[in-house]
Amino acid sequence: xxxxxxxxxxxxxxxxxxxxxxxxIRNIFQYQKKRPPVPALFLACALALSCGGLVSxxxxxxxxxxxxxxxxxxxxxxxxxxxxxxxxxxxxxxxEPPLEGLTVKDLPAAPVDLEDFSQSESWNETVWLLSQDxxxxxxxxxVIQFENYEPGLADASxxxxxxxxxxxxxRFYPLNWQINLWAYxxxxxxxxxxxxxxxxxxxxxxxxxxxxxxxxxxxxxxxLDSLDYDMPDFAVSAGLTVSYDPDSxxxxxxTEDQLLLMDESWVDGAPISxxxxxxxxxxxFSYRDGLLRCQMSFVPSEAPMxxxxxxxxxxxxxxxxxxxxxxxxxxxxxxxxxxxxxxxxDDGQVMQAATQEExxxxxxPYGDEDGYLFYRF
Length: 377
Prior knowledge:
Shape: elongated
Low-confidence stretches: 1-15, 30-56, 58-70
Largest sheet: 16 strands, mixed
């Protein structure tokens, strides 16, 4: 899915001189090595050993030694609460599907062409194959009827939901896939033991809202043995800190090894609504390297032309529920003008980029006027 981000011809650089911006960033870094007194060191070690029972999002390679990072602390301005209100929208569609007489042998075997249903296989011109995994013998079908069908001008008289088949069993779900239909985008099928029960589950996403700069999806999980489904209500883990400085009209977002600076001076008034950094434009799911992932766009201002900050999460199952973990500030945010992303390279050097091209090229070292570079403690 591609979405465009607004570029204003009236954008200005981060408020203040380059020296002031440099000073603000340097104050955020704790880059100088500080040796604590021995008693304090012993106390810190004791406290660390006592915290083994705390639950948090953890790396998949738990046996690897952790490398200390410089920390991004004392962000300027007013702290903002990271919130994701209303994004787990239940995309159910009412209606009883005309499926009487349908058997597993009747289900279509060839995927539908969403741009031209008239050339596609179906059952009773009602059930159409959307996606399948032939190796696992799992398939996803759309249940829809047309009163008068014309390619490119589909007018559904009955959009009922979807069917999931696993082997010889199948089940109907009243889930709305209308936007996937009009976007000509069949859902992808993802498989994995997402809840740690030793059994593989099916996951897929359906779009529930689409518009200018807006794309929101819901995630569904299917138990392949029972075909029971769940739409997770995600908790948001710690790890993303956000603040807004009204004096410089700059938004700061930080993870443990990244810092994003967003210029909000061009937004009319540039208000931050009630101290909340909220998702409002994008919720998009994917599957990569054995993990479900979620990319979310957060809007730092209620002004309609405010550029979003894009954050990537991994989805992990813990304490009986799913959580958004390991937040990572996406370089896609740099497609908007006058933003800056800093991050810690593998050798401890702080790197910087102001465009996606600069980031993809590896960035440039960040240092002060005298050329002294920020390194890991």
